[in-house]
User: What shape does this take?
Amino acid sequence: MPFSALALELAEIESQDLRRTRRLLESPQGARVTVDGRDYVAFCSNDYLGLASHPRLIEAARQGAARYGVGAGASHLILGHSMAHHDLEKRLAAFAGFPRALLFSTGYLANIGAVTALVGREDAVFADRLNHASLNDAVLLSRAAFKRYPHLDLAALERLLAGSTARRRLIVTDAVFSMDGDIAPVPELVALAERYDAWLLLDDAHGFGVLGAEGRGTLAHFNVNSPRVIYMATLGKAAGVSGAFIAGEAEVVETLVQRARAYVYTTATPPLLAHALLESLELVRREEWRRDRLRELVRQLKARLQVRRWRLEPSDTAIQPLIIGANAEAVAVAEALARGGLLVPAIRPPTVPAGTARLRISLSAAHVPDDVERLVAALNALQ
Assistant: This one.
C-alpha cells in the first residue's frame, strides 16, 4: 500500500525532531493570545505593527462587506476586480514609489506569478541561497537557469552575472531575510542590475511597513529608486490584513496582468479586505510610534539577553534569530518557554540549514517592555 511508505516517511520526520504541529488559536492575533485553551504572550507572528486586530481595520472590513459583499466571485480578468481593488492598487503604487501595482492573493502567488511571467528557458535567475521558498519554487517553475550565490556574497553574484549569456537576467532576493532578519544590500544589488542589464526582484515581505520613512519599505530605507526593480510586498504581516502586491514599471505590471498564471487563473481576494487595507495604509503611514516602539524593543532584547551557549544573529529588524543548533534542543527550549506562558517558534530544517535550528523571536509594536523582559529572563535562565 502506498500509505505504508508515507507512514515510514512520517516516522523518519518524527525521529529527526522535525515533525510540525498546528496550535489552535482561539483569539484574535496579537501579542497576547489564547491558544489551546491557555493564555500566552506570543513572539510568533509577523504582525509587526500590531494591526491585525486593530478596531479601525475591523470596522473598515465591516464597511467593505456591507458595500461589496463577501466574495469576489470571479478572477480579476472576468468580473472580480472591484473598485476597492482598483483604489488599493493605485494607493500601493504611490506608497511604494512605482508607476503601477498589482494585487495577488498571497506573497507566494505573487513571487510565482512574477518570476514565471517574466523569465523562461532562455533566461537566467540569480538567487541568494537563503531566499524564501516561494522564490526558489518560482524559479524552478519558470524553467530558467537557476544560479544561486552564497548568502549576501555580491562578488560571487557578479561573477555569475558576468559569465551569463542568457537572454534575460533576473536577480531575486529577500529584502529582509525571513529567518535571519538581516537586510540585503539593496543599493549594491541595484548597481549590479544596472551594470549587467538585469532586473532585480526584491521580496520585501518583512520590510514593508516596518523600514523606511512612513514604513514605505526597504527601498525607502536605503533611499533607492530604480526602474530595474520589481518590488513585492505582503499585506498580511505589518499591514495586518491579507494578500500581496507587485509594483514596478507599467510594462512590467501589464505583462503580469496578461501572463502571470497565478493572477489570471485565481479568484480575486474578497474586496472587503482591499477596503480594510486602504485604512491599514493610513495607519502604517501616520503612526510612526509603532516603528519607534519596535526599534526600542529590539534594542532592549539585544541588550538584556545574556547569550552563552547559543548565538543571537546580528539583526536590527523585528526578526531576532537565536541559533541553538540541534533540532531536539530547539524544540525543548520552545516547550520550556511555552510552559512559562511564552510562545516562541522553534524553526528547523528544511526551513533553515541543517545544524542551525533556532528560536525565531518576532517582536511587535503590540508588545510592551515587560513582555520582552519576561522573555529575556526565561531565556537567560535556560542557558
